[in-house]
Task: inverse folding
């Protein structure tokens, strides 16, 4: 299998711009694809801001920042961007019909050699792979927020993923300075199967009046050395995203232990989604 050099990242939201950032910083030639100019501009300015932060903390030089930005080609044309890509990483919103439409288009245009990776946090890799005619070249590449900082890439193998593809994606993840951990496709994979029940239990502790969000978070930060408490983390991830993943676990395993706390459901209904709406378990700027 040929080496991965040219990458198309589809979707420039929180995860997509972070993914484009790390590929470009590691010398890959990156097309960052969005649907609207405004979204594309926002993605590029977020990358610039995060690179500036790395320069100011002396993690990278000004020159590395410029080189990283030079490696990114903003694009509004999905077809054009995947035409010569060795790897396409999809990071559009967690919505099956939307992802299906994107994968059909990528599969139609990308060369036969192209590997398609998805950054989905909750949808079955096997189900997404089945939308394409290249299930053996389809894989989960699950990054963590903030992507430039978090070391893990959870590599998720679908039912038909070719072991050579897994190996190649593991090697590529290492080139990004990440640690790839291979797992098999299952609801929530490993990361969210373990993380979300913890967050849900923390929400139950608020719901049952056992502690305030601040106190519950302090318990986990000071007692368990978590960098953020579970409720602060839930706000950071997005309460809608947490609820969606819990529902995937609940439906996937048909096990009541994954039942989302009613308080989480109510907060999502009320539009209190965490950082992105300015209010969740905490008030945010
Ligand atoms: N880009 C580049 N660098 C960034 C950054 C970004 N977006 N965000 C933070 N940083 C860097 C800072 O520059 C700083 O670098 P330094 O240590 O070299 O100076 C370092 O990260 C720490 O940042 P801060 O000092 O600003 O703030 P904190 O020390 O409070 O750390 C945090 C912030 C890194 C977010 C830390 O709180 C943390 O690790 N939290 C847990 C995050 C987590 O669990 N993420 C996973 C979420 S689950 C997920 O994504 C999967 C999905 O499927 C749900």
Result:
């Amino acid at each position: 299998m040929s080496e991965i050099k040219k990458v198309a990242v589809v979707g420039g939201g929180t995860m997509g711009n972070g993914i484009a950032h790390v590929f470009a910083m590691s010398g890959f030639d990156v097309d960052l694809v969005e649907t609207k100019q405004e979204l594309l501009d926002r993605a590029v300015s977020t990358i610039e801001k995060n690179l500036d932060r790395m320069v100011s903390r002396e993690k990278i030089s000004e020159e590395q920042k410029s080189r990283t930005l030079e490696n990114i080609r903003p694009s509004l044309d999905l077809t054009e961007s995947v035409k010569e890509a060795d790897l396409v990483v999809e990071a559009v919103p967690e919505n099956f019909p939307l992802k299906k439409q994107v994968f059909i288009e990528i599969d139609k245009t990308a060369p036969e050699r192209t590997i398609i990776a998805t950054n989905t946090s909750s949808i079955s890799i096997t189900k997404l792979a089945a939308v394409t005619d290249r299930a053996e070249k389809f894989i989960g590449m699950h990054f963590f927020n903030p992507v430039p900082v978090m070391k893990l890439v959870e590599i998720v193998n679908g039912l038909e993923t070719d072991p050579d593809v897994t190996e190649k994606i593991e090697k590529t993840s290492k080139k990004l300075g990440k640690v790839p951990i291979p797992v098999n496709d299952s609801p929530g994979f490993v990361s969210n199967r373990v993380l979300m029940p913890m967050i849900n239990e923390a929400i139950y502790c608020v719901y049952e009046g056992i502690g305030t969000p601040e106190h519950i978070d302090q318990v986990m930060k000071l007692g368990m050395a978590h960098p953020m408490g579970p409720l602060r983390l839930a706000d950071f991830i997005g309460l809608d995203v947490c609820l969606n993943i819990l529902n995937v676990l609940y439906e996937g395993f048909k096990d009541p232990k994954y039942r989302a706390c009613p308080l989480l459901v109510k907060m999502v209904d009320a539009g209190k989604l965490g950082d992105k709406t300015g209010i969740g378990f905490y008030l945010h700027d």
Summary: The mean pLDDT is 97.
